[in-house]
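Duplicate of #3305? Posting structure anyway:
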């Protein structure tokens, strides 16, 4: 009797849980296999090594993140007003703070970035470059439309995203502070918009 089609996806979800909890070095294939009710021989029908499943976890979460959060290459919508900019930003923040898969991936990146050069590069992309690149495109388009004041787009995007990223990390460290921290982010976004909206 064959394994159902969702087995590979269940393995990846379980692997993300175990890697986020125990790190790469602290995880073995037996742990992952047992967490989805498989013997090792059945596991090996899907993945040949810990490194292979490690790579697949990063691929899965990167695709998931781009589909739900967005990317500079595939902007679905450029805000047509400062109100839309606020709504877009808070949608992205709430997704980032509350989506369990993304929270686990962020924890994994935070702990493994000091042990794995590829993870370090991915952490820099995820925590800084990708979000900054999205808002560079957004702000540039909004300046062209006369919604935002003209400014150095690179600096403006960095100065917008860096404090929000820092507060999202605070949510990870202090889950009890999430409601207050989201209010701080909302206030920051509103203040940024007030300062940068075209007159």
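Output from current build:
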């Amino acid at each position: 009797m064959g394994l159902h089609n969702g087995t590979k996806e269940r393995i990846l979800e379980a692997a993300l849980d175990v890697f986020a909890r125990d790190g790469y070095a602290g995880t073995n294939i037996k742990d992952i296999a047992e967490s989805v009710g498989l013997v090792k021989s059945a596991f090996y029908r899907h993945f040949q090594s810990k490194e292979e499943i490690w790579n697949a976890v990063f691929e899965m979460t990167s695709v998931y993140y781009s589909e739900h959060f967005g990317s500079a290459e595939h902007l679905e919508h450029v805000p047509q007003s400062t109100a839309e900019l606020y709504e877009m930003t808070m949608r992205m923040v709430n997704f980032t703070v509350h989506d369990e898969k993304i929270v686990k991936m962020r924890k994994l990146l935070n702990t493994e970035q000091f042990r794995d050069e590829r993870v370090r590069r991915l952490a820099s992309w995820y925590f800084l470059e990708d979000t900054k690149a999205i808002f560079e495109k957004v702000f540039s388009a909004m300046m062209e439309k006369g919604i935002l004041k003209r400014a150095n787009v690179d600096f403006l995007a960095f100065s917008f995203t860096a404090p929000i990223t820092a507060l999202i990390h605070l949510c990870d460290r202090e889950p009890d502070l999430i409601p207050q921290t989201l209010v701080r982010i909302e206030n920051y976004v509103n203040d940024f918009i007030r300062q940068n909206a075209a007159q």
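Confirmed duplicate; merging threads. The radius of gyration is 20 Å. The mean pLDDT is 88.
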